[in-house]
Amino acid sequence: MTFDKSVLQIFANYCVAAAESMAYTLVRTAHSAFVKETEDFSCTLMNPRGLTFASPKTLGATWYPGLDFGAVIDMIDHYEPGDICMTNDAYSGYVATHTPDVMMWKPVFYNGEIVCYVGGHIHNTDMGGAVPASLSRTLTEIARACWTRSCSNTWPLMCARPSRIAAT
């Protein structure tokens, strides 16, 4: 299927509007000062390989959404509708830069096939660490950004599947 340039631009604008809507919803519902005051978050739409094709232009960390989620997306063997995955481990697919950055992504299905992913990150100070927000020039290793050597506040990779969650 081919599109002329004007139709392609209209489609791109719709995708950016969806990403902007994600960002505005996050700001309106967040309780974190990092979201409300510093806008240290991102929202993104990604192709099935994990490459960003749309992100907010006016809200959030507009430099962050260029991240390639491909490596971390490939770490999950099988996706089902409703899955929501997350990590804050800087070594799980190399998407989180340090433990306070929580990365999340969700597959979007159409006719049983993944057509894209939606995702983003939020900087969260409540992850524990050597200093508040784990931001210190003296921290030279990921394990030193954690309370313990085992880095117990790091989630290597988690994927919540609705079929696995019991109704309460």
Contiguous helical run count: 3
CATH fold group = Beta-Lactamase
Mean pLDDT: 79
SSE order in H/E notation?
HHEEHEEEE
CATH architecture: 2-Layer Sandwich
Q: State the distance separating the first and last CA atoms.
A: 46 Å
Task: Count the E strands.
Answer: 6
Sequence of strands across the biggest β-sheet: 2-1-5-4-3-6
Could you list the spans in which at least 5 consecutive residues all have pLDDT below 50?
147-153
Explain the overall architecture.
- The chain is of the alpha+beta class and 168 residues long.
- The chain has a single domain (5-162), classed as Beta-Lactamase, CATH 3.30.450.
- The chain has helices at residues 5-29, 33-36, 70-73; strands spanning 41-46, 52-54, 84-87, 101-110, 113-123, 158-160.
- The chain has a 6-stranded antiparallel β-sheet with strand order 2-1-5-4-3-6.
- The chain is globular, with a radius of gyration of 17 Å.
Essential attributes:
168 residues; alpha+beta; Beta-Lactamase; 20% helix; globular
List the helices and strands and how they pair.
Layout: H1 5-29, H2 33-36, E1 41-46, E2 52-54, H3 70-73, E3 84-87, E4 101-110, E5 113-123, E6 158-160
Antiparallel strand pairs: 1-2, 1-5, 3-4, 3-6, 4-5
At a glance:
By secondary structure, the protein is of the alpha+beta class.
